[in-house]
Design brief:
By secondary structure, this protein is of the alpha+beta class.
Length: about 850
């Protein structure tokens, strides 16, 4: 298959105007294929040659301007259109297309709970060609008219309002000008909740077996959707540009969500079957906010080529968090006044759950600028690799710093100019910067060069001194005392930061060593080299980037770090605590803080933490990285005991039922960390954790997975559990458990299912891979480390980028932390058959492995 190059896209965009697609899809033709008939009306600006993309199971016929063409001329995914005359043309293509089981193209899913079948599209990047023929590039926008024939009893959803014409035929209203990758269809016996807002139809949809769970949360989902819609209309001059707003929660979705105009698709894990925390609900709300922001950033104004993907993702990420905060925090204040707990600051969750994703990606060999040079994204295969922590998290962080430097008023003025100039069209980085510059006197072009065209993470380090008395005698504070702050920068970007200072608060309520804020002040880094003199005694704690408004690693001075170890949970503001926890996380990863010290800090301070996002983020890093990857083998028993004791302490502290979210987090992590089966068996047998919560499907499968790892259950128990929960998530849970069993037979069967069978859907593949590699099972899985590379390379070549990404992420031998494993993986990168999606995942995974080895080496040397 040929991938589209940037040069080819530019040539074709100069050659063609595409006016309209008329598409007829028939989903009643069988379980393996569907029929796709496409009429494309386009104009050639001059005589010449071009091509159209299509990936059919069978290309039945193709004609141009009424003249039949030879289907045998199809070359991979390209059909050549030669000797075109200048002027208008009509291309007709009739094909049978394959359904997907990997979340690419037209994905087909049969719900094991009730036997109902659903189909939906995911046409991102190059996958429109799996559904209909197209001139498939983002800057050839067109109008799309789609008819769908579906089985009786199904509902069809699309980018516009869909009307049922009888006998299973549905007509979807024509779109305004949109890009090919944004076209969407979802068909099946959906359960729907509909309403109207601002004169538009709004709807939320899921498969029927999830109906009770969607109904339970429908008011919450629709309330947040309406509030975000209204707030975006306060920010943006351009109104919402489509005729309806549907949100479909679809099965086996590869991403978190997709911003199809008028029909946003979400992974249906966001329809919660089991108990979740407020932070998880907040995450769902943020994804809703992110995708709605895309209606303007990406759908109304679309990138010209994929080097500017940050113009979509960074903006949606920033706007999602910021706008959700604006619509929920006022409500939180009202709730707090009524005696309820306030809704947490979304930027805390961003800081602890998303920002590290950007920091990690930006320190790997695969790093790239937020806005890479166009030559660095020569084709669609390379473009796909840039949907990472840099394009999302780092880009959003850069925009947050831009707003802090520019001011929100000027920022929004520039954004609105951008929309007005490029609506229903395409734009580049240069267009965007020019539009921002039109709203301010600041040098936005220089900012863009420093922030968007560079790579790596700056490090800001605090150096604090107390000047000699002669230097401070006239400081004006009346006592002759002062202290001086100098900030050194390892890196090249300018930063406007807030510095927070804190003193010990004797007798105050709170966690260990409660701290009281003294003051906050702004600082530009780099400055002129002169230390900043502040009155009074040296504070107990000085925090750079307090408020987390820039993107940089932070290093505290020695005295402040000593305060943190005893008083971290006593810092009054959750966002400040997030900055400090991130500093500790970065120090562990950089081998500057022993893993045991991080665990000890978590053991001391998490029992007093009030923000669930921080508890979840710290526990996840402690368990998944500090214990499982960074701790040397001889220290593992103590590390696991510390983690278990921490979880047990959190469970004890929540027995009164006052903090169910914290208790749920603690129970989950206790299950995952358990080294003995007795307590887990008791909970499973009794159907409840003592003191609550009762076991829902998620907790039951989590316990059974851990018992499988420990060798405390068997295939018969897994089969019984699956019979009790025959849902899609039940099938995934059973696959995870079977792969986790500590027997040679179970591992061999799981490996064959992953790398030889090729029938697993994307979700069942992921579940099986998650179960296969388990810390503590190294003797069983050691022989598979070397097998992984050739088997994964062959698999990726057969099954494509989605499965390649899943294999590189979940099937990688992450717990084989040794030089032999690193060497084996490094040599595998030389294999010429590696497809780009898998190569990128392996480069990143091997860099993480290299970092884990460095951390372990530092610990061993210190001992």
């Amino acid at each position: 298959m040929s991938v589209l190059t940037r040069d080819e896209a530019q040539t074709r965009a100069q050659f063609l105007d595409v006016e309209r697609y008329t598409i007829a899809l028939d989903l009643t033709t069988g379980e393996e294929t569907f029929d796709s008939r496409t009429v494309i009306r386009f104009t050639a600006r001059a005589a010449g040659d071009t091509f159209v993309e299509v990936k059919p199971a069978t290309l039945r016929s193709i004609s141009l301007d009424g003249q039949p063409l030879d289907p045998a001329l199809l070359d991979g995914n390209r059909y050549p259109l030669t000797a075109l005359a200048a002027g208008p043309h009509e291309l007709n293509i009739d094909a049978a297309m394959r359904y997907s089981r990997t979340g690419e193209g037209m994905h087909r899913f049969t719900d094991p709970t009730d036997g109902e079948t659903y189909a939906y599209t995911q046409l991102f990047m190059e996958d429109v060609q799996r559904v209909f023929a197209a001139f498939d590039q983002p800057d050839l926008k067109s109008v799309f008219s789609i008819d769908v024939t579906a089985p009786e009893g199904w509902t069809v959803l699309g980018n516009g309002v869909a009307e049922h014409a009888g006998e299973g035929r549905w007509t979807i209203a024509a779109t305004p000008l949109v890009s090919t990758y944004l076209v969407a269809v979802a068909a099946g016996p959906w359960h729907s909740v509909t309403t109207e807002h601002a004169g538009l139809p709004f709807g939320i949809h899921c498969r029927r077996s999830l109906a009770p769970y969607l109904d339970a949360d429908a008011d919450e989902i629709l309330d947040i959707t309406r509030a975000l819609y209204d707030r975006y209309h306060e920010k943006f001059d351009e109104p919402y540009p489509f005729d309806s707003y549907d949100q479909a929660f679809v099965p086996e979705f590869n991403a978190g969500a997709m911003e199809n105009p008028g029909l946003v698709t979400f992974r249906d894990e966001f329809v919660y079957r089991s108990a979740v925390t407020d932070t998880e609900r907040q995450t769902r709300a943020m994804v809703i906010a992110h995708e709605m922001a895309h209606m303007w950033f990406g759908d109304l104004v679309t990138l010209t080529w994929w080097d500017d993907i940050w113009l979509n993702e960074s903006f949606a990420e920033y706007m999602g968090y910021q706008t959700l905060n604006e619509v929920t925090l006022p409500r939180a204040l009202n709730s707090a006044s009524a005696g309820e707990a306030p809704f947490p600051d979304t930027w805390v969750d961003f800081g602890v759950a998303r920002k590290g994703w950007g920091y990690d990606a930006d320190q790997r060999p695969s790093t790239h600028p937020v806005a890479p040079d166009p030559d660095a994204v020569p084709d669609t295969a390379s473009a796909l690799l840039n949907f990472d922590g840099i394009s999302y998290s780092k880009g959003a962080s850069a925009l947050r710093q831009l707003v802090a430097w520019l001011g929100e008023k000027d920022f929004l003025a520039g954004i609105n100019t951008h929309f007005a100039r490029h609506k229903f069209a395409n734009a580049t980085l240069a267009d965007f910067i020019d539009n921002l510059a039109s709203a301010t006197d600041r040098d936005v072009h220089a900012w863009a060069e420093q922030w968007l065209r560079t790579t790596g993470v700056d490090t800001l380090t605090a150096e604090i001194t107390a000047p000699e008395p002669a230097e401070t005698a006239s400081n004006g504070n009346g006592n002759g005392q002062s202290w001086a702050l100098a900030v050194t920068r390892d890196g090249s970007r300018p930063h406007r930061i807030t510095v927070g200072t804190y003193d010990h608060a004797l007798g105050a309520q709170g966690g260990p060593g409660h701290l009281a804020p003294r003051d906050r002040f702004e600082l530009d880094v780099p400055g002129d080299g002169t230390p900043t003199i502040r009155p009074g005694r040296r504070p107990a704690l000085v925090v750079l980037n307090d408020g987390d408004l820039t993107y940089a690693k932070v290093r505290l001075d020695t005295a402040s770090w000593d305060t943190v170890l005893t008083s971290l949970s006593g810092i009054p503001d959750a966002l400040t605590r997030a900055v400090v926890w991130n500093a500790a996380r970065d120090m562990v990863r950089d081998a500057q803080l022993p893993p045991a010290t991080y665990l000890a800090a978590a053991r001391t301070h998490l029992p007093h933490e009030t923000d669930l996002a921080l508890v979840q983020g710290v526990l996840s890093f402690a368990a998944g990285q500090v214990v499982d990857r960074y701790t040397i083998p001889e220290d593992l028993p103590a590390a696991r005991a510390t983690l278990t004791d921490l979880c047990r302490d959190l469970i004890r502290r929540t027995e009164d039922g006052s903090r169910p979210g914290l208790r749920l987090i603690a129970v989950r992590h206790f299950i995952d960390a358990a080294t003995q089966p007795d307590t887990l068996r008791t909970w499973l047998d009794e159907g409840t954790v003592h003191g609550g919560p009762e076991l829902d499907p998620e907790l039951r499968w989590r316990i059974l997975t851990r018992l499988a790892v420990l060798g405390a259950t068997d295939e018969a128990a897994i089969a019984t559990a699956l019979a009790a929960d025959p849902s899609a998530t039940g099938r995934e849970g059973a696959a995870r458990c079977r792969a986790a069993l500590p027997t040679a037979e179970a591992k061999a069967a799981a490996w064959d299912a992953l790398f030889s069978d090729d029938t697993l859907s994307n979700y069942l593949f992921t579940a099986t891979a998650q179960g296969f590699w388990q810390p503590g099972q190294e003797e069983l899985t050691d022989d598979y480390v070397a097998r992984f590379y050739p088997d994964a390379i062959a698999l990726a070549a057969r099954r494509g980028p989605a499965i390649a990404e899943a294999a590189g992420r979940y099937a990688f031998p992450a717990y084989a932390v040794d030089p032999v494993s690193l060497g084996t993986g490094t040599r595998a990168l030389e294999d010429p058959d590696l497809i780009p999606a898998l190569r990128r995942k392996l480069v990143d995974q091997l860099d993480d492995l290299r970092r884990a080895l460095a951390v372990r080496s530092a610990v061993a040397l210190a001992d």
